[in-house]
Design goal:
Length: about 240
């Protein structure tokens, strides 16, 4: 499989109603954190960046491909986002460009990645979560602005749901105020159908201070009917320095 058919795709960024639970995704909370307005959720930016990849590579990438997403600066609510792909040997890079400047970068490969996830000094096991893939999860991409017909046609859950579920672990266990998703490495092991129940197992493997605040790194495994569908190395800025 090659990435030669990847094409540019553009969208107007927006926050979804459920993201208001993190104050930074509201205008008031975004300004309080030093931004001009509401910051768009990183998982939504990730959803946009997957569009050229899924359009070119299809279900095969959703069932066995990999992704690494890094957020370099915020995308703001209502920003025009151009998802600009570039092929390289063995995969593709896709940039989220806003007014000519990169805000995030996705590296995608169509084949499994056997590199080990980060290890750290911690091994704090969180309570297992069971999340039915209905409601906000069943049409996440479409509500965010990714109208690719493949998801409705196949009933496959959008890949942005996996880091969204990892974010739900962060929200339940590690944060009290505003926080920012900063990075994820994602491996797809299988697809999942809308309506199934996802089981989320997560371990906190590291926590460290940076100039921006306290960061946490999680190892997250998501299964459906006993089958692993996604694994993630998930990083977030869980407490912001003033």
């Amino acid at each position: 499989m090659t990435a030669g058919m990847l094409g540019k795709w553009s969208v107007r960024a927006q926050n979804l109603p459920e993201h208001a639970s993190n104050p930074i995704h509201t205008d008031e909370g975004g300004r309080a954190a030093g931004f001009d307005a509401a910051v768009v959720a990183g998982v939504t930016v990730y959803a946009y960046l997957t569009r050229p990849v899924v359009e070119a590579w299809g279900v095969e990438w959703l069932s066995r491909g990999t992704a690494e997403i890094r957020f370099t600066s915020p995308v703001m609510d209502n920003d025009p986002v151009d998802c600009v792909p570039e092929e390289f040997d063995g995969g593709a890079k896709v940039w989220a460009m806003v007014f000519g400047k990169s805000r995030a970068r996705l590296i995608a490969t169509p084949s499994p990645d056997d590199r080990a996830f980060a290890t750290g000094p911690l091994h704090e096991l969180f309570e297992q979560q069971v999340e039915p893939l209905v409601g906000e999860w069943e049409n996440y991409g479409l509500r965010a602005g990714d109208d690719l017909g493949l998801y409705a046609e196949t009933g496959i859950v959008h890949p942005a749901v996996w880091p969204s579920l990892a974010n739900s672990v962060v929200k339940r266990n590690l944060v009290e105020g505003p926080w920012i998703h900063t990075r994820s490495r994602i491996r797809h092991h299988s697809t999942a159908q809308v309506g199934a129940a996802a089981v989320v197992d997560a371990v906190l493997v590291d926590r460290f201070e940076t100039r921006s605040g306290l960061r946490a790194v999680l190892d997250v495994r998501i299964s459906v009917d006993g089958v692993l569908v996604a694994s993630l190395e998930h990083e977030a800025l869980v407490s912001l320095h003033p």
